[in-house]
Design a protein that fits this description.
Strand content: under 5%
Helix content: 40-55%
Number of helices: 9
Strand order of the largest sheet: 1-2
Distance between the termini: 58 Å
Order of helices and strands: HHHHEEHHHHH
Largest sheet: 2 strands, antiparallel
Shape: globular
Structural class: mainly alpha
């Protein structure tokens, strides 16, 4: 997604969001990274309302709502593609510290979105191997209030080193869950029953009792 699309997402999230909703494209990117990383497919009917903290926006126009949905799905698809097809080149959408002239990356928004997505997808409290627990902890450090004191105590070098672990952590978690996908259970649909005197479904023109029922 180009910068124009990301800027539009930022605008729409801020315009229609609330104190508890996702408010930036960076946070939304993290959210989707966790959604597509889980062991099961998450229906839009579940992940969409949680973007807005269950307070769905009242779009000023249908076109604006469609624009947001299109951009959101595009962002989600890109995250899934990169994590699956190009893990060594995976790049999360982090923010740059303007006061630091863009040299310092701000990952808290992305990480907070990731933790929200893992919660919605239902795997954040799953038992993980030690290495994967460490990977999730590196994201939690930057995405939760509990990590603020530890981050503030870091030197610039320590902070940069910590930031450098976030993207590999996301890739590792994605790959782990891809190896532990839950089987998809097909939905069984009951076919309408054919009466004995109804026309046979094979198209013969005979009554069902005189045709396929006898077979």
């Amino acid at each position: 997604m180009d910068n124009k699309g990301l800027e539009k997402l930022d605008q729409l999230l801020l315009k229609y969001g609330n104190d508890d909703s996702i408010l930036s494209a960076s946070e939304l990117d993290g959210y989707f990274a966790a959604i597509v990383s889980g062991p099961r497919q998450i229906d839009p009917g579940l992940w969409y309302p949680h973007i807005w903290a269950e307070q769905l926006p009242k779009w000023t126009s249908e076109k604006e709502g469609e624009r947001f949905t299109k951009l959101a799905v595009e962002l989600m698809s890109e995250a899934a593609f990169m994590l699956d097809e190009e893990p060594y080149d995976y790049e999360a959408i982090f923010l740059a510290d303007d006061q630091g002239k863009g040299k310092k990356l701000i990952v808290s928004h992305w990480c907070a979105g990731y933790l929200r997505g893992a919660q919605v997808a239902g795997w954040i409290e799953a038992e993980l191997p030690e290495a994967l627990e460490a990977a999730l902890a590196s994201i939690s450090l930057h995405g939760s209030e509990e990590g603020v004191d530890a981050l503030n105590a870091m030197s610039d070098e320590q902070y940069d080193a910590s930031v450098a672990t976030v993207e590999p952590a996301a890739v590792a978690l994605y790959q782990y869950w891809q190896q532990h996908l839950e089987p998809v259970v097909p939905v069984r649909r009951e076919e309408a029953k054919v009466g004995r005197n109804d026309p046979c479904t094979c198209g013969s023109g005979k009554k069902y009792k005189q045709c396929c029922l006898r077979g």
